[in-house]
Amino acid sequence: MKKLLILFSAILSVQLSAQSRGKDYSDILKSKNIYEINAFLRDAHPDDPKRSVLKPRVMEMMKEYIKTAKPGDQKVKQMQEWLAMLKRRPSTKISFDEMNAIIKQKQIARYQKELQTGQSAVAYTPSSPQNVYVSASVSKPAAAIPDTEASEFNMLMAENPVEHKNKTVKILNSLFDNDPNAKECIVMIENRSDCNIIVRIEGIGTTKYRLPIPAHEDNSIVVQKGDYLFTSIVCGAQYASQKTIQKPIMVALGSSSKK
């Protein structure tokens, strides 16, 4: 009995701690902020009675925003997507599988376009020998450091048309393949940094892959399923992570200094 009480106290403590770290929605009914109400609908319990008031309110606010938005407003598309979702479901929250499906469809569209045009949809210009910078610190300003991978990166990016077409077909086949028994799957890596990078994917024995990703772009590769060590140099910083690849995944590296 004593052990049960201790266990119950521990669980309660964790729950209270989690709640204390959560967002404060105590005044949410007074909110006039689309993003705040949208966040509440994603986080709140499905049976929370405030949903019946706030969902129609935020939908009207989104419609009004779209109606009065200036031409070229980048937020309009997002509002339209949220409105479409709110008409079908309780909130704009999407699952991990749904997010993967969205990414997958975008990748299919991209590589189909590349096959049609016969070349990469992204025009690439080889980098200069010095294109990587360390972040500035409090004690000293940012200093340029040599990009020791520049030549290798340029070589990997310089695919001939036949190689590029074969790679694109292989990626598309993997994207369309839903067979759980398939021996290969796709890995997509998004480079959010200001630097060109090479991601090295090392498996068992001689199984190794190199994937070049230009700054602020993404790239994909089809690999054998298994356990891998991912390594890279992202703007001078070392990156390393172990990943088990059994289904398509997306990895995002780095962050931009641009606002």
TrEMBL record:
- Give the protein name, as stated in the record: DUF6759 domain-containing protein
**Pfam families for the chain:** DUF6759
Residue limits of the DUF6759 domain? Answer: 162-255
